[in-house]
Amino acid sequence: MQHNSGQDRPFGPRSACGLDFGTSNSTLGIHGSSGPHLVALEGAHVAVPSAVFFAAEAGAKLLIGREAVAAYIEGIDGRLMRSLKSILGSALIDERTAVYRRRIRFSEVIGLFLEALKRRAEVAQDAPLDAVVMGRPVHFVDDDEAGDRHAEETLRTVAEAIGFREVSFQYEPVAAALDFERRHVSGEKIAIVADIGGGTSDFTVVRLTGGTGERDERGSDILANGGARLGGTDFDRQLSMRTFMPGFGYRSPMKRGDIEVPSAPYWDLSTWSSVHQLYDPKRLAELREVRFDAREPALIDRLMRVVETRRGHSVLIAVEEAKIALSDRERVETPLSWVAPGFGVEATRVDFEDSARALCDRLGNTARACVAQAGLTSGDVDFVFFTGGTSQMPSVRTAILSQFDNAAAIDGDRFGAVGLGLTIEARRRYG
């Protein structure tokens, strides 16, 4: 893992921070007199949704987090962008996107969001932040070392541009292990940290020895790392395509009868990073042509209503909420009367888990391969430490735990464990 030594001057523990820039939520932590803690960045909330809202009104301030989502839901004219981290490592990161009267690089959008977090933390502690340990997934991009390096360097450049003089990185599951160790471990244990986030899933096999989180180096304790560019947004997409999109015309027949309506708009409507592409006037013109030739034009009318009102994120939010609800319930009803009177979608856990089975299998296989990479067997693992919002899905937990019969499952702070671990690491490196 690269470490940027930067300036020669020493850093006090309160001038450094740990920053967990997540696909769904982000946190920032500092190490104070009472130990590491996450800063309340949005009211009393320490976890901020990774979202920005650009209002159409000239001179309007940039909104982030819950305020950004609320402005969109309230119907304020503007552009909502979520799951910003998923753009890292993709071809989109160096491209510009339209934000009303200007075009802005996606990397600049990430910078605006992270700068807002940094500024709020500095106000909260009444001191500047000069150094940061940023979390990163084991793989920003699967099987693409050049793309992975480019993603990290983009994030480094963004961090330096917003005022951090020292920037270094730590794998997110390693950071989670540091927080886990100080809370749960006495004696030497072997754990696999399963950090299942919004955009990536990362695994680290680590040797834990309670009370040693402040040791200078832990490299020999990190036995293996593995991961996949697979996370909560992929499960959202499966639920959307299986249960929600048919109500908008997905897989419905054209008048010819032997072909279905084009599927591309439905994939865009089910993907956080590409939903905005539907709002191109050319796409709406194409939908009108599809409607004319569709056997069930009323279904296409629903899709066109979403596109015409630029409410694609409202559909994605509804899908995400249904996914979360299915962790505790067998069936969820989602009213969508704003699309069409009386329209709604029923989702069941059985259907959802069936549609997502391949994703769960991939997570289980990745966890098992990570342990094998460490030269261990499944029976050597004492703990499976779960963190990340997607780790609460029953099917995800089952798929991973089934690989380790003798391991105890322990849950960390779903949205805070990585940030706290990065803060511990920031103290070690810069304190």
Automatic annotation (TrEMBL):
Entry superkingdom: Bacteria
Pfam families the UniProt entry points to: HSP70 (PF00012)
CDD domains associated with the record: ASKHA_NBD_HSP70_YegD-like (cd10231)
Xref: InterPro entries: ATPase_NBD (IPR043129), Heat_shock_70_CS (IPR018181), Hsp_70_fam (IPR013126), YegD-like (IPR042054)
Keywords associated with the record: ATP-binding, Nucleotide-binding
KW Membrane (keyword) present: no
Family the UniProt entry places it in: Belongs to the heat shock protein 70 family.
Protein name: Chaperone protein
